[in-house]
Amino acid sequence: MRTTRRRLVQGAAIGLALPSLAKAEDAWPSRPIRCIVPLPPGGGTDTVARLVMRRLSEELGATIVIENRPGAGGTIGSEAVARAAPDGYTFGIATTSSHPVSTIFRRDVPYDPVTSFTPVTLLGTTPYVLIGGSAARAQDLAGFLAYARAHPGQVNYASVGTTTLGYLLTRHFEQLTGLSMAHVPYRGSSQAYPDLMNGTVAVLLDNPPGSAALVRDGKLTAFAVTRPSAMLPDVPTFESLGVQGFDALFWYGLVAPAGLPPQIATRIRDALAKQFLVDPGAAELRALDVEPVMSTPDAFGRTLAEDARTWRETAERLGIGPE
Asked: What residue range is the signal peptide (predicted)?
C-alpha cells in the first residue's frame, strides 16, 4: 500500500510539473540568448553570424549576445555549445569544418558532430576563393601554378586549422594540380590576411565574405572560385581554368546542445525563414555571397550526417587521416 501511494504521489508531482515545463517553453525567450561563433571576429563566419543573429533578435524580440570562441578549427567553440544546457539560451554557429570535417583530422574532438547537437537549421551556402598575396608572385591562377611548381615545398599556404574543410580542399587542390606547398595554420582567416599582405604566406582558400573587400581594394588577388561568386563576379571558376572536380561549397548552420525542445528549434527555424527567405533579408545574405537555405531541423540533421560520410571518403581517397 505504501509503495502504491508513493507511486501515486510521484505521478501526481510529475503531472503537475508538465504544465510548468510547457509554460516555460511558451515564455521562451525570457532572458538573453547567447550565440557562440567558433572563429575570431572579422572573418566570414563571424560576419554571417552577426547578420543572422541581428535579424533573429528582431524577429524574436530578444537580446542575442555573440560570443567568439576561436581555436582548433572551430572545435573549441563547438565543444562549448555541446556542453551547454539544452534550455534554448545557448546556440552555436556550425560550419562544414566544425562539424562534418572536424573528426576526420583529430581523434580527440570532444563531441560527435551529429549526436552531440540539436540541428536547428542550415543557414546558407557559399563558394571558396583562392586568395593570393605578394608571396604568390602572380596575378592569375596560371601564373601562381607556374611559380609554385617551380618552387616545390617553398610556397606557404594558410588555413584556419587542420580540422577545416579549407585545409582538406587545399590538400585536394595540391593533388589535382601537382603542387607541393608548406602549411601554416591560423586560428581564423582574419588573422591570416595580414600575413597574406605582408608576404609571410602566399595563398589562402577562403570564403568570399571575409576576403572580397581586400580584393576590391587591390590588397589581395582572387585567382579562382569553386562556384560563381556574387561578391567576386569577375573571378573565373577553377573548372573554367582547367582544374576539374574542384567545385565544393561551404555551409553555415545553427545548432544547439543535444536535447533542445523541438518546439524551440522549430520556432527559431521559422523565425529565420521569415527573415531570410524573402527580401530584404535574403538580399543581405546574398550580398555576402551566401545563398539562403533555412532548412528544417530534420533536413539539416540529414545534411550533417551525409556530409560527415562524404568528406571522410574524400579524406581517405587523399590518404589523409587523424593527427
From this structure: 1-22
**pLDDT tens, 261-278?**
999 999 999 999 999 999
Phi, psi of 70 (to 5 degrees): -80, 170
Q: What is the CATH number of domain 129-241?
A: 3.40.190.10
For residues 123-133, average pLDDT? 96
**CB 96 within 8 Å of CB 250:** yes
Cα separation of 62 and 56, whole Å? 8
Q: Which helix (H) or strand (E) holds 195?
A: helix 189-198
Query: What is the model's pTM?
Result: 0.81
Q: Name the superfamily (CATH) of residues 31-126+250-318.
A: Bordetella uptake gene, domain 1 (3.40.190.150)
Same CATH fold, 129-241 and 31-126+250-318?
Answer: yes
For residue range 46-81, list pLDDT tens digits in order.
Answer: 999 999 999 999 999 999 999 999 988 788 999 999
**Both ends of the chain: CA-CA distance in Å?**
61
Compute how many other C-beta atoms are within 10 angstroms of the C-beta atom of residue 137. Answer: 17
pLDDT of amino acid 9: 31
Task: Please name the amino acid found at residue 236.
Answer: P
Residue extents of the structural domains in the chain: 31-126+250-318, 129-241
Angle between helices 297-318 and 165-177 (to 10 degrees): 40
- Residue 67 phi, psi (nearest 5): -125, 110
